[in-house]
Amino acid sequence: MGLRKIIRVPSGWLSGLLFFSCFCCAQVMGQSASPGELLRDSEAAVQSGDYEEAAVLMYDYLSAVEQSDAERVVRIAQDVRFRLSTVLIELDRLDEAAVLLETYIKQPFVAKPRQARKLMVTCFFETPDYENAAQYASNAIVFNANPRVEAVRKKMGYDRELETDKETEVTEESYTDEEVVSLYQLQGESLFNLKRWAEAVPAYEYVIEHAQQSQQKGYAIMQLVNSLIEIPDFERVQSYIPQLYATDSRYDIRVNLALLNVAGALVDAEEYSSALPLYRMIVPKEELLAFQEKRLKKLRVESGLPPEIGGQVTQAELLVFGAVDESEVETEELDEDGELQKKSKELREHEALMKALEAMPPYEVDVEFRMAEVYRLVDRPYEGLALYERVMEANPTNQIAQGSIYERTDLMLKKLGRRDEAIDGALAYIETYPEGLMPRQLAYLLSTYLQPRQQFKQVKRIAPYLDKMAPTEDEGILVYDRELYFMQAVADLMLFNFEGSERGFGYMLDTFPGSDQYPSSLYWYAMSKLFLEKHAEAKEQFERYLALYPEAGYSDECDYQIGVCLFGQDLYDEAMEQFTLLIETHPDSAVFPDACSMRGDIFGSRGELDEAVADYERAIDAAGTAAKATYPTFQMVEIFQAEARYERIINAIELYLATWGDQANISKAVYWLGRTKIKQDKLDEAIDAYMEALVAYGDNVLEDGVDLIVDELSKIARNYLNQEKLDVLRERIHVEIEKSTELTLALRLRVLLASLDKNVEALGEQLLVELRDLDQASPPVLAAICKAAVARGEYGRAEELLTIFVEQFDESAFIDEALKLYAFAQMDAGQYEEAIETIQETQERYGTIRKVVWAQLLRAEALLSLKRYDEAHEANSGVLGVPAWRGEPVAQATYQLGKVEEARGQWLKAHAFYQRTYFQYKGYAKGYWAAEAYLASARCLEQLGLENDRRNTFRAMLFDPYVNELEQASYAREVLGVDEVAEIEVYLETGGTTNINVQVVAEVDA
Amino acid sequence: MKVKGLIMSMMICSLCSAQERAEGLPALLQAPNGKKVRVFIQEADDRVLQFNAPKSTTIMRAPIAKVQEVTFILDEDVVEIEARFGRDSGEQARAELERFLTPYVPFMSLKNNLYPLFFKQIELELLEGRYAQAGLYAEYLLGCRAHSDIQLKGQRYALISALKAKNFKEAAKHIEAADAPVAEQYFKAAHTLHQGEPKEAMQEVIEIIIEHANEVEWLAPTEFLAAEIYLELGMTNSARKTADQVANMYEGSEVAWAASLLEERLYNALNGMETGGK
To answer: Number of Cβ pairs closer than 8 Å across A and B?
Structure first.
C-alpha cells in the first residue's frame, strides 16, 4: 500500500500539497538521503522550529521505509507518523494530521493510542468535521476505559498480518480526568453542532458532573440547557438553571450571549420561571467588558504581547455571534521588541469575542425589556411596570422604549387600576413625541380601554393631542387616525355633546372619505343632527346613506330615522307613511318594534286607540329585547288605564313579565299593577306590592319604576289613608330604613317618609349638606335636594344636579326640579336668555301640567328683566288662560302683570293689576301675593301723587285679615304711624270691618 | 461501599438502643481544620458544647466557636426525611416536624445537617401564624457566630417573626443590625409591608430585584415577599403566580418550599376549595 492509499485526500489544495511533498520527496530521494539521515534531519528541523521542512522530511522517511517489514522499522515509522501528525497540527494542517493519525492507529505498534485518538478528535473538531469528531471522541472515551478490546482487533498493515500478543498490551497512561472531560466536551459540542441534541445531553452532563473549572462547567450547563430547549425538555432545563448561578460562567461572554437566546426560547415556550433567572444572570455589557479585559491582558502577556487589546473575530470562534469573517483575524502581532509573535488560540478566541461584544449595542435595555415582558406575562404587574419605566428612562425614543411606554400604559390601565396616571403618562408622551405610529397606538390603547367602560369624558381628553399629531400619508398610521377620530365622535355622542359629534362625524366624512368607518360615520352624523333636532338636515343625511349604501347595515335604521325626522317636523302623515313602509318592508328589522311603537303613538295622538294598541302589540311581539318591549307595553297600559280596562292592564303586564322575566322592568310593572289595584279599591294589596317592590329593587339607582312607586305611595297616603293606616305605613317605612344596608334604598325610603310627613323640603336641605357624592341618589332624592336648594336660594350644585339627571335619568318625571333649580340659578346669575332656554326645554318636556307653571312665571320674569315688556305681559297673561294653572299661579301672574306695567311707567295700569291681585286672589299663597300687591299698589299711587289713596291702601292692608299679620304689613304700619295703627287695631278688636276703597281709573286689558 | 454500610449499620444500632439514646445524640463533630470526631452530644449553651465519646461516660466540653459543623447521625438520610415531610403543610405537618426536631433544636446554633429541616420548621411556624415560636427558633440561628450566612438567615427570620407579630420595636433592632446593603433593603421592604404600606414595600422589593439580581440568597425571600405584598394588595392571582415562580426558580430551598405551600393555598382559595390550616 503506497502513501496515497494511506492518506485520504480531503481537498484540492491538500492534493496539491501532497503532490508537492511527493515531488520534494522524489528530489530528496534523488539526492539519495538514507532513511536514517531523513530521520535525523527531520528531528533537527523540528528542533529549529522549521515545521514545514520537518514535515517534508518525515513524509520522505515514511515513503522510504514503506516497504519494510522489519518490526524495528515499522515501530520507528509509527513513531514518525505520530510525531508528523503533531507537526502538521502545529502547521494548522489539521485534516492531513487527522488522516495520518487514522493510519497510525490502524497499524501495529501504536505506542500512543490514547493521545492519537485525542488528537484526532481535536483535528476533526477544528476542521470542522463534527461527524468524525463525535465518533472519535466516543471511540477515545471507550478505548481509554478498555484498550485491550480495541487492540486485539488490530490487523497488521502492509498487506500482512503481524499481530502479536504484545500489541494487546497498552502501556500508555490513561487520560487524566481533565482530558476525559475535554473529550466529552468536544463530543457534546460536535453533537450539538450536528443538531443531535438528545445525544449531546449525556456528554454535557458528564462535563457538568466532572469539570473542575467553574467556567467550563458553566459553559457545559449553558450548552446542555440549549440542547434541552431544542429537544425540547423544559422540565430538565429548570433543574440546571440554579446550578448556573453557582459557576463563574456568568462572566463567560459566550454564555452571556447564549443566555439571551436561551431565555428568549424559554419565553417563546412560555417557560417564564426558567427564563427569568437567565435574564437576571446576564451581566451588563460594561461590567462584562471590564471583567474580560483583565483576562485578555493576562492572555496577551502569556503570548508575549503587550497587554493592550486587539485582534479580530473568526467565524469558527464566534459560536454565538457568527458575524465576522475569518480573514479578518490577526493571528500574529508584533511584540514590544518588534518581533512577530503568534497568538495563542485562546487569545485569538478571546479577542474575537471581545471585539464582537464591543461591537454590540448595549443589551441591558433589551434584557430589561424582556424581563418586563416576562413579569407582565406571569401577572406580576408591579415588577413589569418598574422595568418598563427603566427602559423608557434609558432612551425614550428608541423602539424598545416605545414598546415600554405602551406596555406600561397597558399595565396601569388593565392590571393596576391606575387609570389617571396611565392617561397622564401616555398623553405626556404623545405631546413630546407626536410623530409616527406609537402616539397613535397609545391613543388607541387609551380609547379602546375607556370606550367600553363608557368613560367618555376621559376619551375626550385625548382629542387635543390627536390634532397635534404630525400628519402622515402612511396607511399604517392613517388606519389609527381614522379609528381615533371616529371614537372621539362616538364619545361626543355618548356625552350628549351632539354639536361635537356632528362636527366629529362630519370631520370623518370630509377627511377619510374612503375609510371603512365612512358608512357608520354618515349614519351617526345624521343621528347627531337628529339629536340636535335638525330634522330636515338629518333626514337628508339618512337619505344620502340610503342612496350610497342601500343594502348596508344601517339601511333599515335609516328608514326608521327618516320617519322620526318627519315626526319631529310635525309631519305626522308622512311619518306614519314612513313607519308603515318600514313595517311592511322590514318585518325582521331590529327597528321594526320601534317603528310600530312610533306609529302607535301617532295613532294614539289621533285618538285611534285600537290601532295604537294593535301597533303596540306588534311591537311587543317583535321585540328582541326587554327594552324594546317595555315602551309599547307601558304605552299600551296607559291607554287601558284611560279606558279603565284594568283586566287588560293586568294581562299586558303579566305577559310582559312572563316574557322577559328578570330583564323586565319589574318595578314599573308592579307600579302599573298597583295602580290597577288602587282603582279596584284593593289599597292594602297595592301598598304591600309597592313596599315589596320598593325594598326588592330600591337599591338600584336606575330602576325608574321604583321612583314611580315612591311617588304613587305618597299619593295613596295623601288621598286614601286614614291616620291609623298612615301610621302603619310610616312605621313600616321606618323599619325598612333601619334594615336597609344600601344607601340608594335608604334614601328613597327617607324621601317617601318625608313625603308622608310633608317635609320633603326639610329632608332636601339635610341631604344637600349630607350627600357630597350624589351617585347613589335616585331621581326623587335628587328632586328633594333641588327643591330645597331652590327654597334656600342655594345654586352652587345646580349644574351638577341637572347634569346627573341629563346623563342618567333623562326620561325621569322628576327632572323638572333640576331644570327649575338650574333656571333659578341662571336668573340669579343674570343669565336671562339662558334661563329662558332652560324654561323652553322644561315646557317642551312637560307642556302645561301644573307642576311646571313656575316655568311660565319665570319666563315672564326673565323677559321683564330683559325689558321685553310685551313678551313679559304675554307670558303672564298666558298663565291666566290655562285651566290647569288656576289658583295661586294666577295670583302671581296677575301681580307680575302689574310689575310689567310698573316697569313701563304705566302706573294706573299697574295699580289696576295689583288691586285685582289683592281683591281677587288674597286667599292664595297665604296672602303673600296680595300683600305684595298692596305695597306695589301704594308705590304706584305715590307715583301718581295720590297720597290720600296711598295711605288708604295701607289702611286697607291693615284691615285685611289675609295680609295684616304678614311681614309685609309692617311697612304699612310704619307709614301710617303708631297712633293710627293703634286705632285700627282697637277697631279690629271690637269686631269692626272697613269699607275703605281706592278708586283709580285705569285701563286694564288683561 | 462495605465500610459505608458498616458505618451506617453502626449508626442505626446506636439510634435503636434506648440506652445509647440516653447517652446523647450521636453526631460527628467537625473542627475548623476539617477533623471529625464521633461523639454523643449532651448539652449546649451560648459558649460551650458538652458531649461524651462513644463508650465513655466522661463529659467533655468544647467551646462552641471551635466547632465548625455538626453532622447528626440519623437512621434515615436527611433528604429522605425531607421527602417524608414532603409538601404537607398545616398544623399537623408542623407538629410532626416539631416532634422530630425537638431533641436537636438546642443545638441549632451549630451549623448542622438538619438545617434544611429546621428552616422548613421555621417557615411552617410563620405560615401557621406561630410567630413567637418562629422568633425563638430564629434566635438559635442568630447564635451561629461561626457562620455569617446562617446568622443572616436567623436575622431574617427574627425580623419576619417580629413584623408578623407586629412587634415593630423588636423588628427595628434587626433592621439596625443589618450590615449587607441587600439585607438592609430587604428588611426595610418587609418592615414597610407590615406597617401597612404594601405599594411602597413593592417599590423597595422591585429595587432589590433589579439592583441585586444575582444575590440568589436574598432574591428568593425578596420575591416571596413580593408574593405576600400582592396578597396584601388584594391581587391574589399575582400573589399565586409570584409564589409559583419562587417555588420553581429556587427549587430545593426552604423559601421555595414555603412559596409552594402558599401557592397551593392560594390556588385552592381561588378555586373555592378548603385550604386547611390558616
So the answer is: 57
What the block records as the C-alpha cell of A406 is 405602551
Tell how many helices (H) and how many strands (E) occur in chain B. Answer: 13, 5
Residues A934 and A911: beta-carbon distance below 8 Å: no
Q: What is the pLDDT of residues A536-565, one digit of tens each?
A: 999 999 999 999 998 878 888 999 999 999
Residues in chain A with CB shorter than 8 Å from the CB of B241 are 378-380
The three-state secondary structure class of B27 is: strand
Q: DSSP strand E in A827-882: where?
A: none
CA distance A337 to A187: 41
User: What DSSP element (H or E) covers B20?
Assistant: helix B18-23
Whole-complex ipTM: 0.80
Torsion sign (Cα): A563, A568, A571, A576: positive
CB A569 within 8 A of CB A536: yes
Give the list of residues 6+ apart from residue B245 with CB closer than 8 angstroms, or none: A272, A273, A276, A378, A380, B223
Burial of A903 (0-12, 13-18, 19+ CB in 10 A): middle
SS3 A105: helix
| Cα end-to-end distance, chain B, whole Å | 46
Record the cell numbers describing residue A932, joined without a space: 305684595
Chain B residues within an 8 Å CB radius of A242: 216, 249-252
DSSP A282-293: PPPHHHHHHHHH
Task: Enumerate the H helices of A643-682 as residue ranges.
Answer: 646-660, 666-679
Residue whose entry in the numeric block shows the C-alpha cell 459553559: A219
Residue type, A14: L
| Residue pLDDT, tens place only, A510-535 | 999 888 889 999 999 999 999 998 99
What type of residue is A484?
Answer: L
Q: In the Cβ-directed half-sphere of A362, how many Cα atoms lie within 13 Å?
A: 12
Residue A242, chain B, CB below 8 Å: the answer is: yes
Say if B252 is an interface residue toward chain A (CB within 8 Å): yes
Residue A664 amino acid letter: A
Cα–Cα distance for residue pair B235/A628, rounded to 1 Å: 40
Q: Is B216 on the interface with A (CB under 8 A)?
A: yes
Residue A372 sits at the chain B interface (C-beta within 8 Å): no
Residue B20 Cα distances to A175, B25, B113, angstroms? 49, 8, 21
User: What are the φ and ψ backbone dihedral angles of A758, each rounded to 5 degrees?
Assistant: 55, 40
Query: Would you say the pTM of this structure is higher than 0.95?
Result: no
In this complex, do B237 and A382 lie within 8 Å of one another by their Cβ atoms?
A: no
The 10s digit of each residue's pLDDT in A323-352 is 334 444 456 666 555 666 667 777 877 787
- CA separation for the pair A253, A352 (Å, rounded): 11
State the Cα–Cα distance between residues A884 and A881, nearest whole angstrom. Answer: 9
pLDDT surpasses 80 at A489: yes
Q: Answer whether A704's CB lies under 8 Å from A809's CB.
A: yes
In contact, A660 and A668? CB cutoff 8 Å? no
Residue of A nearest to B223 (CA): A383
Q: Which pLDDT score, from 0 to 100, does residue A326 have?
A: 40
Of A307, A323, A308, A311, nearest to A354 (Cα)?
A311
Residues of chain B with pLDDT under 70: 1-23, 86-90, 272-278
* 3-state secondary structure (DSSP) of residue B48: strand
Which residues on neighbouring strands pair with residue B25, listed in sequence order?
B41
